[in-house]
Design a protein that fits this description.
The complex is a heterodimer.
Chain A (H helix, E strand, L loop, with lengths): L4 E3 L2 E5 L4 E6 L7 E7 L6 E6 L5 E4 L2 E6 L4 E6 L8 E8 L9 E2 L3 E6 L1
Parallel strand pairs in A: 2-11
Antiparallel strand pairs in A: 1-3, 3-8, 4-5, 4-9, 6-7, 7-8, 9-10, 9-11
Chain B lengths: L3 E4 L2 E4 L4 E8 L5 E7 L6 E7 L2 E5 L6 E7 L2 E7 L7 E8 L10 E2 L3 E5 L1
Parallel strand pairs in B: 2-11
Antiparallel strand pairs in B: 1-3, 3-8, 4-5, 4-9, 5-6, 7-8, 9-10, 9-11
Classes of the chains: A mainly beta, B mainly beta.
């Protein structure tokens, strides 16, 4: 059983501030790490999929890093905007194989305050 | 079309009912997934289909019966459910291969309430 931990559980950030949160996972069971953004009443939307130690990915103001040796990933949001309010889910693909289901963390619930 | 659709959006059923959840995608994805999410918990994998064949079953009770009639459709047949099965049921799809290193596309979910 894979254990994916996310912290903090929730976060209030002022508009314009930058923020980051953490996903940790067992480094011994790793194929890929996914980040999803899930807005209320919408579908979870993929942000990044990372596979290599040291990977860094960026999409607009959001970026992520991956350390597979120590088993963690950081998600950064620069200059937070109200539309960034969502739950950010980290998920691990640890099984291999052609189609691999994901093991999710509980998520970080981010609220951007105007 | 990069959308995964799920019907119905909401479903209320009794413990003796039989109902089905439906998921559809037209992205040519050959891997499809069912996840279950209970309140304040992360989504949990239930089933994975690869090329219309069941490849992963996460020890789900037999009152949940998945079916993949073709490459675009995924059903979840429900029978004799318990109130604790009330949850959000999410469907997802992805390209096959790459050992989980490819994004999954999620539907909006079906909110199921079992009375």
């Amino acid at each position: 059983i894979l254990n994916v931990e996310q912290s903090p559980q929730s976060l209030h950030v002022q508009e314009g501030d930058s923020t980051n949160f953490t996903c940790s996972f067992p480094s011994s069971n790793f194929y890929a790490l996914h980040w999803y953004r899930w807005e209320t009443a919408k579908s979870p939307e993929a942000l990044f999929v990372m596979t290599l130690n040291g990977d860094e990915k960026k999409k607009g103001r959001i970026s992520a890093t991956l350390n597979t040796k120590e088993g963690y990933s950081y998600l950064y949001i620069k200059g937070s905007q109200p539309e960034d309010s969502a739950t950010y889910l980290c998920a691990l693909a640890g099984r291999g194989g052609g189609a691999d289901g994901l093991t999710f963390g509980k998520g970080t619930h981010l609220i951007i305050q105007p | 079309d990069t959308e995964v659709t799920q019907t119905p959006k909401h479903l209320v059923m009794g413990m003796t009912n039989k109902k089905s959840l439906k998921c559809e995608q037209h992205m040519g994805h050959r891997a499809m997934y069912w996840y279950k999410q209970k309140a304040k918990k992360p989504p949990e994998l239930m089933f994975v289909y690869s090329y219309e064949k069941l490849s992963i079953n996460e020890s789900v009770p037999s009152r949940f019966s998945p079916e993949c009639p073709n490459s675009s459709l995924l059903n979840l047949h429900l029978h004799a459910l318990q109130p604790e099965d009330s949850a959000l049921y999410l469907c997802a799809s992805s390209q096959e291969g790459l050992a989980g290193a490819i994004e999954q596309f999620f539907g909006p979910g079906t909110r199921l309430t079992v009375l």
